[in-house]
Amino acid sequence: MTPATGSPPTHTGVAVRATARIRAEHNGRATTLPLLHSDGPFHLRRLRSSGGRARVSVIGAMSAPLGGDRLALDITARKRAELEVTTAAATIALRGSTTDPAGYDVRLTADENASLIWLPQPLISTRGSTLHQTYTVDLAASSRLLLREEQLLGRTAEPPGHLTTRLTVRRAGRLILDQHTTYGVPALAWDGPAVLGGHRACGQLLVVTPELHPLEEPVHLGEDPANGCAVLAPLADSRALLTTAIAPTPARLRLLLDAALAVGVPAMRCGRRGS
């Protein structure tokens, strides 16, 4: 991720191993944050609570992930806790001094009657980088999740690196989603008409909540394919909706994901930019 303002420490070229941890608990009156453990490039900052929800921002303290790095975020909302986590800036995958791939693992856990919102800024895959990113989500039957992820494949006039992402979600111990995507050389046909169609911004929005009203059929958003499009569709678990979107720019991608959220779950609508 991009570093915070000021004079942050620089990456030494030695692969970084770091795991930052956040734990939110409900004390009977409000959600508290008994554990905020910063590590490596991750600096965790408390934000002002909103509507009883605890909020945390993840700030980059050095350039990461670079080749060979192994980074992880472990985020847990205990019983009845309400937690929102954002990032202060985009995460930029860079080549580094080694050809080894970097790993970035995000683990999200929400216990009974807990609410967990994960709204990071985009992940940017730059030329020459190799990054394997995973999301592992474990939800109780009565918990609620709002997860947004966005990727920008290459900076301006730049081809992307090699990016693989995997999103695995379990609800009440049952697997409800296991999705794997790969972009950039040596993947085949990743930028063809059946996948990105020339677009360079892609992302998805996952909503899981017991109060969800099941959709009868998928909803398509975006009238002009040149400006991007999105599909809002129910999963086999009727309490989960997944939106997948592609667009020419990150701003357009965000608009499509916001529109999908407004259509699918008005009660869980959140402000743009994850603030």
UniProtKB/TrEMBL annotation:
Signal peptide: none annotated. It holds the Pfam family UreD. It comes from the Bacteria. It is found in: Cytoplasm. Its main location: cytoplasm. Keywords: Chaperone, Cytoplasm, Nickel insertion. The keyword Ribosomal protein does not apply. HAMAP family: UreD. Belongs to the UreD family. Required for maturation of urease via the functional incorporation of the urease nickel metallocenter. UreD, UreF and UreG form a complex that acts as a GTP-hydrolysis-dependent molecular chaperone, activating the urease apoprotein by helping to assemble the nickel containing metallocenter of UreC. The UreE protein probably delivers the nickel. This is Urease accessory protein UreD. It comes from Streptomyces milbemycinicus. The lineage of its organism: Bacteria, Bacillati, Actinomycetota, Actinomycetes, Kitasatosporales.
